[in-house]
From TrEMBL:
Taxonomic lineage from the root: Bacteria, Pseudomonadati, Pseudomonadota, Alphaproteobacteria, Hyphomicrobiales
Name used for this protein in its record: Glutathione S-transferase
Source taxon at top rank: Bacteria
Taxonomic source organism: Bradyrhizobium jicamae
SUPFAM superfamilies documented for this protein: GST C-terminal domain-like (SSF47616), Thioredoxin-like (SSF52833)
Gene Ontology MF, one: transferase activity
Keyword annotations from UniProtKB, A to Z: Transferase
C-alpha cells in the first residue's frame, strides 16, 4: 500500500498513525501541498479532488478522505467498537470532526503556522467556532475518558490530529482540562511525542 501525504497535515497524520499502530505495511509518498503537488495531472489521476491523504491499494484501487481511509484500514481492529451503536457514535464524531472542528481549528493553524499571519488577522467567526468545538469535546471528555467511552477509537485518533496542535492556531487550552488529559492519554496510546 502507498500512502500519499504531507506530514504537515493532520488529516495525513491520522492515516500514518493508524498504519503504525496496527503495524500495517505501507510506503509513504511525500506530497508537498504548498508546492501544488496535489494539482499535477499525475496526482489528479490518483485523487480527482486533488487532496491528500490518498492511498493506493494492491491492484491500483485508490481511496481518499482521511476518515474514510482510517475506517477502511481499521475495519477489523479494536479501534472500531464491536457494538453497533458505539460504532454509530464513533462515526458521529468522525463526521463532526470534518464539518465542525477541522474547518476552524485546522484553518486557523494553517494561517498562523504556515502563512505566518498574526492571530489578529484570523476570522473571528472561525476562532469562535473553534472554541465551540473545543467546548463540545471538553463536555464529552469530562464524562468519558475517550470520545466514545472507555477505549480509544478512530474518533479519538481523528480529533487528536488537529486538537493537539490547536495552540499553533492561537487556541488556548488552559480552560480545557479534560481535553488536555485526553490529548496526553491518546498520544501515549499511539506512542507519539507530546505536541506541546
Amino acid at each position: 500500500m502507498k500512502v500519499y501525504g504531507d506530514t504537515n497535515s493532520g488529516n495525513c497524520l491520522k492515516v500514518q498513525w493508524v498504519c503504525d499502530h496496527l503495524a500495517l505495511p505501507y510506503t509513504w509518498v511525500a506530497v508537498d501541498t504548498l508546492k501544488g503537488e496535489t494539482r499535477t495531472a499525475e496526482f489528479l489521476k490518483l485523487n480527482g479532488a486533488g487532496q491528500v491523504p490518498a492511498v493506493e491499494l494492491d491492484g491500483g484501487r485508490t481511496l481518499a478522505q482521511s476518515n474514510a481511509i482510517i475506517r477502511y484500514l481499521a475495519r477489523t481492529s479494536s479501534l472500531i467498537p464491536s457494538d453497533a451503536f458505539a460504532q454509530g457514535k464513533m462515526d458521529e464524531w468522525l463526521f463532526w470532526e470534518q464539518y465542525s472542528h477541522e474547518p476552524y481549528i485546522a484553518v486557523c493553524r494553517f494561517q498562523m503556522f504556515y502563512l505566518k499571519k498574526p492571530a489578529s488577522d484570523l476570522d473571528p467567526e472561525k476562532v469562535k467556532r473553534g472554541y465551540a468545538a473545543l467546548a463540545r469535546m471538553e463536555h464529552q471528555l469530562a464524562i468519558t475518558p475517550f470520545l466514545v467511552g472507555d477505549a480509544v477509537t478512530l474518533a479519538d485518533i481523528s480529533l487528536l490530529a488537529y486538537t493537539r496542535v490547536a495552540h499553533e492556531g492561537g487556541f488556548h487550552l488552559d480552560g480545557y482540562a479534560a481535553v488536555r488529559r485526553w490529548i496526553g492519554e491518546t498520544e501515549e496510546f499511539l506512542k507519539l511525542p507530546s505536541a506541546r
